[in-house]
Amino acid sequence: MSATAQSPTLAPDPGTEAGAFAVLAVAAGDELYGFPLSSVREILVPPPVTEVPRAPAQVLGVISVRGRIITLVDLPTVLNLDAMIAPHGRVLLVDNGSELIGVAVDRVLQVYRIEQDQIEYTSAVDAELSDYVVGLGRVPAGNADADEHLLILLDPVALLGGS
Amino acid sequence: MSDPRDNVQQEFLAEAQELVEALSRDLLVLDEAHQRNDPTDAGLINEIFRSVHTLKGIAGMFGYKHVGSVAHALEDVLDDLRLGRTFVSQELLDVLFDSVEGFQRLLALDDPQSPEEEPAVQAYIAAVRGIGSEPEEEEGDPLERYAIEPAVLSVLTEYEEHRLRACIREGLKPYRLRAEFDLAAIDDSIETLRGVAQDDAEIITYLPSMEGGNEDTIELVVLLASRVSELELKAHFEGRYGKIEAITEQTYLPTLPPRLTSIPAATNSIGPTVEEDNNLASLRSVANSVRVDIRKLDHLMNVVGELALVRSAVARIVDSFKGEMKYRQSVIDLDRIGRGFERQLAELRTGILDVRMVPLGQVFSKLARIVRQAAREHDKQVRLVVTGASTEVDKLIVEELTDPLMHLVRNAIDHGIEPMTTREHAGKPGQGTLALNAYHKGSNVVIEVEDDGAGMNAHSLRKAALARGLVTPEAARELSRQEMLDLVFLPGLSTRSEITDMSGRGVGMDVVKTNILRMGGMTSIASEKGIGTKITITLPITLATIRALMVNVASRTFAMPVTAVREAIPYDGDHVRTVQGREVISLRGETLAVCDLASHFGFRTSNHGRGRFVVVGSMGDRSLGFIVDELCGQEDVIIKALGKSLSSVRGFAGAAVLGDQQCALVLDAPALFTEYFAGREALEAMEVRP
User: Fold this and answer.
1) Beta-carbon count within 10 A of B558 CB
2) What is the pLDDT of residues B365-386, one digit of tens each?
3) Any chain B CB within 8 A of the CB of A55?
4) How far apart are CA B674 and CA B513, in angstroms?
5) 3-class DSSP string for A70-98
6) Residues of A in contact with B663 (CB under 8 A)
7) For residue range B84-128, what is the model confidence (pLDDT) as tens digits?
8) Which of A23, A54, A65, B133 could join A34 in a cystine, given CB atoms 3.0 to 4.6 angstroms apart?
């Protein structure tokens, strides 16, 4: 159950054809985000949260997952956005390179395979975010409202303070 | 769980580590004897030789080439030593001590065959080979003074012959003892004989005589050397073992039959069967203990925790049937079984904890080496006094303690204990004393590092803290002497060399304090100028599970280790006074500072009135009352560390899993104490440089 040696980055997923990434798309606040699938260990129904006094603002508290104590963070606060996560969303257990971090999100959409050439590596987003954001990925939306979704692809190591 | 090859490798490293530690311990004893000019203890040299020999053997098997070659070179010089071809000298001891460090470095290498290490290893081997003082000239062979049968002399091994010669030279007289032994228990009997002889005599060898004995017994001729008189020896051995007589020019050992002289001189045994038994015995003793990965014990501890949860769930169900008459008998039975279960569970828990316990002596012997080394570096005379080396603490704590203690010991010698001349001018004994004391105090372990050196100047510490801007001038004026001394633990104060000289202390006291705090311990300091300094470390005995008082603060549950709790009393808001900005109450005529946990943690709460409690915590000689809303009873909890992402958050030792996915934060009483008493400035200073 320890954090694996495999480094969770947006490297091509060995399970896919060369150049494609497997990404887990989630909804948090008003945006859609993509976590590299290789970094996501588990998706949980939110367990009871124990608040930690004097913890940094993005820390919602700690949760107990089968006897392990895991820090739970609020994605919008980490990204410095003003949005609320629904209390009955989901919690992702994400490997940040040194420990598992719980990330509260509203909804989990699906896994997408994104081709290298579908990723925009421009810093079209907020400059402050650019440290955490790898790029923007376009994925087919599959509904009538829009042709495609824009996923903000996150770097879990930079985002969640791993090493 | 992991690659079996890795496991084997780990086994090797653990065993090698143990051998190197044994080597280090024995060398210290040898060094001490040498400093006192005591005669060299032959048994000890043998012990050292065996450690190195075994190390060489296993290093070869696991491809630790460099370790093997160093051990090989050492083995040669140790062999010379035990055969009297060379003698213990300062130079030799230095080389031997270097080897301890050398082995540890070589064992830590990722690549045990690394060619980069080759020059260093060769240089060391050359240094070892360079040693070898010429043995003293002998004035005639002492063996010739005694009429020992040539047939006996010819079967003595080189080592035995050397010992006999050395004993005679030291004025011991050779004796021979004829005794009959039961064949079946011969090893034990000889061990007993060795034990009896130990103080009075040294057993050189034993050989079977062909006289006496029958199918089940054998008569041995034991050749021994003794410094006590024949009469005393007789009193000791005769009757119990057999006849003893002094070897003079008139007496001869019985002629040995030719069959025996053909036994190779190198074996020290009566016959092949006996030797086999010997080996079996040593294998058995090894098999009596096992090495266990501490993670396996952690896992067992988790299982015990889960069992406790199951037990309380069952108890709850039993409780719900209590009112109903028709289940009365079953409820009583279940209750009884439940209590039995709980007892066994407690025993299981104690058993597992017990396995994790190791004596502090493990760390102390490492420190003894540091003391010797540091004293030589600084050309100071230091006597190390250790008490309580058998005090047991959790293995994890022992591991974590090594670095902080090493630091404290170095500091005490570098900066505490003065050079000999300075000490003599001050009317102190020229040799400084460094004491390491360990003892249990309640469920804590206390470790003291005490020196009789120069001590610290509290006022220079304050001046330094002011100069660095670590305290405000106003705060500095109000500091008590103790608070001034405590400044030494602030980061940034003790890292500058000019402060070091002024304060008489070295770098990194803040690091020591932080490391101890991380284990849930506390560091305190006492120092008198000119008299000495004492650093006291108070630690919990184990980290795995603790008994905790569950408290409620603003509707949140916290666990407070009972070790830190003295008592809990009802809180009366009307009797709170304010002294120097701190809230205090009176408790049996004494003033007790109180800290409202809700406001300390920044919880919004409407409960300021009655019905609350003060949990009085004590740490060392300080007390502090924590105001809580509710007491929820005691529970045994397993503390889990908070993740790295929360390492900057102070005041919590971890979290305890309560079952049903709930968890409670465990209050870190020592940290809260420190935080409260150190005041704002200190806290902020700590947060700048974690």
Assistant:
1) 24
2) 888 888 888 888 888 888 889 8
3) yes
4) 10
5) EEEEEHHHHCCCCCCCCCCCEEEEEECCC
6) 50, 62-64, 69
7) 777 788 888 888 888 888 888 888 877 777 788 888 888 888 887
8) A23
Our CA-based measurement puts residue A78 at a distance from the nearest CA of chain B, in whole angstroms, of 13
Confidence (pTM): 0.44
Chain B stretch 4-33, residues whose beta carbon is closer than 8 A to a beta carbon of chain A: none
Distance from CA of A161 to the nearest CA of B (A): 7
Q: How far, in Å, CA of B334 to CA of B442, rounded?
A: 34
A51 and B CB contact within 8 Å: yes
Which neighbouring-strand residues pair with B666?
Answer: B559, B654
* Residues of chain A contacting B651 with CB distance shorter than 8 Å: 53-54
CB B113 within 8 A of CB B63: yes
SS3 B216: coil
Q: Give the contacts of B25 (CB within 8 A, at least 6 positions apart).
A: B365
> Going along B326-411, which residue ranges are E strands?
357-359, 382-387, 392-394
CA-based torsion, B596, B600, B601, B604: positive or negative = positive
User: B448 pLDDT band (50/70/90 cuts)?
Assistant: very high
**Inter-CA distances, B4 with A66, B9, B109, B335, Å:** 27, 9, 20, 46
Residue B669's φ and ψ, nearest 5 degrees, are -55, -45
CB-CB contact of B613 with B567 (8 Å): no
Q: How far is CA B202 from the centre of its chain?
A: 32
How many Å apart are CA B466 and CA B469, to the nearest integer? 5
CA distances (Å), origin B608, targets B568, B573, B576, B602, B624: 17, 7, 12, 14, 19
Best A1, A69, A100 member to test B by mutation, with max B CBs in 10 Å, is A69
Whether B664 and B653 have beta carbons less than 8 Å apart is answered as no
Q: Which two tokens stand for residue A72?
A: 């739970």
Answer yes or no: is pLDDT of B158 > 60: yes
pLDDT tens digits for B412-425? 888 888 888 889 88
- DSSP characters for B570-618? E--GGG-EEETTEEEEEETTEEEEEEEHHHHTT------SSS-EEEEEE
Between chains, do A67 and B640 touch, taking CB under 8 Å as contact?
yes
Sign of the dihedral defined by the CA atoms of residues B591, B592, B593, B596, in that order: negative
Q: Does A66 touch chain B (CB under 8 A)?
A: no
Cβ pair B49, B27 in contact under 8 A: no
Q: How far apart are CA B598 and CA B572, in angstroms?
A: 16
Find out whether B575 and B584 touch, Cβ atoms under 8 Å: no
ipTM value, please give it: 0.82
Ramachandran region, residue B441 (left: φ > 0; alpha: ψ -120 to 50; beta: rest): beta
Q: Is B525 in contact with B508 (CB distance < 8 Å)?
A: no
Which candidate from A54, A56, A63 shows the least CB-CB separation from B601?
A54
On the question of pLDDT at B280 being above 50, the answer is: no
pLDDT tens digits, A25-39: 999 888 899 999 999
Q: What is the largest CA-CA distance in chain A?
A: 46
* Nearest residue on chain A to B601, alpha-carbon basis: A53
Q: Are the beta carbons of A69 and B640 separated by less than 8 Å?
A: yes
Chain A / chain B CB contacts < 8 angstroms: 74
